[in-house]
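Work Package 4 report. The design task specified in the project plan requires that, given a folded chain encoded as structure tokens, an amino acid be chosen for each position. We show below one input record used in the internal validation round.
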């Protein structure tokens, strides 16, 4: 399973890249707004930090304009993946990008049928939004399960990129259901590492080590 980091904060991306935890990056217009940075500048900087796929989202709503924006974004670096919304116009743009050899991430997927259409349009990645489904009383994990079955039934190569992840339980369940990638906010990476018994065990070991009066170096 691959891990992407879901942020436009280059400091956080560099921190996680150094530890070797991330295979790519996803951004969206809200994350760009939160960064306070120029969109194209920050995407270029992220692409210099990682060789992995970096999703950059179009903001046009018509297919022809999405194509112009997406080609502009794809020219920033060879690892840019053009992110497009799951609308009819987005699917049309997805098919055209695929024919041009530009990788795509079809975003804002909330149903298995939407995911099926994105695969038929040749999407490189499909982004089902788990947390936002949970927020309205549905179970986002049902969508991951359904997409896995459908893509495997027909041999679609579109990768399931679990998005809108809110905590460690989402990550574990996605891994168990066979999602190809999880895009994870930086704070959730920290939550994945943390365990109170690890902290307690380490504190006890260090206390006992102190009593030996020894030093390793
Ligand atoms: C990733 O591609 C999505 O844009 C992101 O995971 C959305 O997460 P949110 O629902 O927490 O905003």
């Amino acid at each position: 399973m691959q891990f992407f980091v879901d942020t436009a904060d280059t400091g956080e991306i560099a921190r996680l890249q150094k530890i070797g935890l991330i295979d790519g990056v996803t951004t969206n217009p809200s994350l760009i707004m939160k960064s306070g940075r120029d969109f194209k500048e920050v995407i270029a900087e992220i692409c210099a930090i990682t060789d992995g796929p970096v999703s950059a989202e179009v903001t046009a709503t018509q297919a022809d304009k999405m194509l112009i924006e997406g080609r502009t974004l794809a020219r920033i670096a060879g690892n840019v993946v053009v992110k497009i919304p799951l609308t009819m116009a987005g699917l049309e743009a997805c098919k055209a990008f695929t024919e041009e050899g530009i990788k795509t991430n079809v975003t804002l997927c909330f149903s298995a049928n939407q995911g099926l259409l994105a695969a038929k349009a040749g999407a490189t990645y499909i982004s089902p939004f788990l947390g936002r489904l949970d927020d309205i009383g549905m179970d986002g994990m049902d969508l991951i399960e359904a997409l896995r079955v459908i893509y495997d039934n027909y041999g679609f190569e579109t990768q399931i990129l679990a998005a809108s992840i809110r905590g460690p339980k989402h990550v574990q369940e996605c891994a168990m259901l066979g999602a190809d990638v999880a895009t994870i906010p930086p704070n959730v990476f920290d939550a994945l590492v943390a365990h109170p018994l690890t902290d307690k065990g380490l504190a006890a070991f260090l206390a006992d080590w102190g009593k030996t009066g020894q030093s390793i170096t």
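Residues 196-212 form the longest helix (17 residues). Validation will be extended to a larger panel in the next phase.
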